[in-house]
Amino acid sequence: MFVPDLLYHGSRTANIKALEPRGFSKPTAGRNIPAVYASSIPAVGVAHGVGWTSEEGIDFYVRTTGIVCLIVPKMLAPRLYGQLSLYTISSKGFEPTPTDYSGTGWFSLTPTLVLEEKVFGSALDAISEYNMDLRFF
Fold first, then answer.
1. Model confidence over 53-109: pLDDT tens digits?
2. CA–CA distance from 49 to each of 20, 64, 126 (Å)?
3. Strand 68-72 vs strand 133-136: parallel, antiparallel, or unpaired?
4. Which CATH topology does 6-136 take?
5. pTM of the predicted model, to two decimals?
6. Which of 33, 53, 50, 48 is nearest to 110 (CA)?
7. What is the chain's Cα-based Rg?
8. 89: closest CA among 62, 68, 66, 117?
């Protein structure tokens, strides 16, 4: 199995030096153990970092072309205007997330040092930079 060197974690919180294990925002997945969750695709990190849950109607998927499609209810669009940080971390100590069928999700049960932080003025800026397909319903 291919293990990437770097992973990406999105957050509304800036200036994090180490990511601590927390629950993740997809409670319907049936598994919500405190862990550091990250993705091998920066755009997936962005999608998770906006600060919402799947129970609010948010969905996203990775197309076969590699483009991430983010589907958002119109009433939640204002959340896209808030600042977002995308953290780059090492994949050392991470395992594939069993409930992630895209193969891009990884988790670690231990705190993880941040290698780099990229701050975006808004989630919309990050969505644009990573060429995500944003759709509203």
1. 878 999 999 999 999 999 999 999 999 999 999 999 999 999 998 878 778 999 999
2. 15, 22, 10
3. parallel
4. ADP-ribosylation fold (3.20.170)
5. 0.91
6. 33
7. 14
8. 117
